């Protein structure tokens, strides 16, 4: 919730938390590399492709962030 509040200060629209998961700073760095083609600016990404896939998988509790990263050879 702290990170959501921080992000809200930089967003022009109200943010909605879709899913949250455990991850390390190394996992976050991997996600930034995977989602680089979707980057809009800074830590903002278009919600499509692999990002949408990850959010859907996590929201349906069909796996973990670590299993997704492994499946995508990251």
Protein model, in words:
This protein is mostly helical and 74 residues long. It has one domain. The chain has four helices and two strands. The protein has a two-stranded antiparallel ribbon with strand order 1-2. The longest helix is centred in the last third of the chain and has 11 residues. The protein is globular, with a radius of gyration of 12 Å. The relative contact order is 0.15.
Largest sheet: 2 strands, antiparallel
Kindly state the number of beta strands: 2
* Total discrete domains: 1
- Amount of helix: 40-55%
What are the low-pLDDT stretches, counting only 5+ consecutive residues below 50? none
- The helix/strand class is mainly alpha
Number of helices: 4
The gyration radius over C-alpha positions equals 12 Å
Question: Could you outline the blueprint of secondary structure elements for this entry?
Answer:
Blueprint lengths: L1 H7 L16 H10 L4 E3 L2 E2 L3 H11 L5 H7 L3
